[in-house]
Amino acid sequence: MDREKAFLIATGLIIGILAAVLVVMGNPGNMGFCIACFLRDVTGALGFQRAGVVQYLRPEIIGLVIGAFIAAFATGEFRSRGGSSTLVRFFLGMFMMIGALVFLGCPLRDILRIGGGDLNAVVGLAGFIGGVLLGVFFLRRGFDLGAARNDKGSQVGGYILITIAVVLLIMLLSGFNVNPEAGGPLFFSKEGPGSMHAPLWISLGAGILVGFLAQRARLCLSGGFRDFFLIREYGMLLAYLGIFVGVLVLNIYFGNFRLGFADQPIAHTNHIFNFLGLFLVGLCAVLLGGCPLRQIVLGSEGDTDAATAVLGMVAGAAISHNFLLASSAAGTTPWGEAAVIIGIIVVSFIGWAYREVDA
Amino acid sequence: MDTLDVRGLSCPLPVMRTKKVLDSGVRELQIIGTGGTAKQNVTRFARSQGFEVEIKNEADGEWTMVLTKAK
Fold this sequence. Notes:
Chain A is mainly alpha-helical and 359 residues long.
C-alpha cells in the first residue's frame, strides 16, 4: 500500500478514536465530532439562534480552523483566493446546514452514528450517497461555478476565518459576556446537548489535531464517494473506513455501541427525512467541491469562497432554529420537511443552471 | 503540445478536465493549475492512466506540469 493511502487510513482511525474519546469525556452521544451540530452550537453561543439547548462555543470548531491553518501555513499552501460564485456558495452552505439539521448531523457524524450502532444513520448514508450521485450527474453535465483567482496583492481576505477563530477563542477563555442578565452572548446551554461537552482544552486540542490531519489528507466526506463514482478512485473511502473502525472499536470497548433504530442519542426515526436530509447535504457538498468539514479546512487555507460557505452554514443554522426547521430527538418538523424539499429543488436548479460555456 | 488551464477550479474539475483531454488520445499535455490538492489529484490520476508527470514550475501557489505517455 502506498504512503498516501496509509496516511488516509491513519487519519481516519485517529479521528474515529478521538470522536469516541470525546464522547466519553462529555460530548453528546455519537457526537464526538459533528461539523453541522458544532457550528450550530457556535451560532447559538453567539445568540444568532436562541434554542436554549444547543448553545456552546465548541472549541473543536475553533481548533479545526487553527489546525488546518497551521498545516497550510507550514507547507506553503496558505493562499488568499476566491471569486468563484461566492454568493451562490453562501446559499449552498446554508442549504447544506438545513439538510444536516433535519437529519441531525453532518456526513462525519453520520459515520460516527453508524459506528455507535445507529441504523437511522445507515438510511442517512444511503441518502447522502444519493445526493452525491445527483451532484455527479450535474458535474458530468458540465456543472461549474467558475474559477477562483489567487489574490495577487493583499492576502488579508485569507486571514479572516483564522482571525474569527482566534477572537472566538479569546472570548471563550475570557468568559466574555455582553449581557449577563440576559445570559449572554456568549450563551451556554444549561441543559440538553449544548450543555454536554468534553473539557475545553481537550476539545480544542482534538480540534487542532483533526484540522491539521484533515488539511494534510484533504479529507472530504463527499469527495470519496464522488471520486469513486466519477473516476473509480477509492483512496478517500479508506479514510471513511478508518473513521468507522476507530469509533466502532472504541464504542464497543466503552460500552457505547447500541444497535438499532429506536432511542439513539440525538437522532430520530423518520426514515424519509433522514434520507432526504443527507441527500440535500450530499448534493450541496458535491456542488461546493467539499463537505462541511472540507469547507472549514479550505476556508482556513485562505479560500474565501469556502469561508463564505461556512458563513452560509452559520446562517443556515440560525434559520433552522429560528424558523423551527431543525429536527430533535422527538422527530422532524413540518417546516423542516418542507425546507428540505424546497432545498433539493433550489439546489438542483443551481446544479442545472451553472454549466461551463467552453471546454 | 496542448496546454490545459485548471487554475482556480473547485474539486473535482481539475481531474475531470484532465481526463477529458487524456481520453481524446493525446500523448503529451501541459497543465497549469493552482493549489496542492489539485496538483496531488491530477498527478495521481495521470499516473493511474499511464502518464509520467513532471512538475516544471511552481511559484506563488501556481504550478505547471507536463504529462507524457509512458512508453
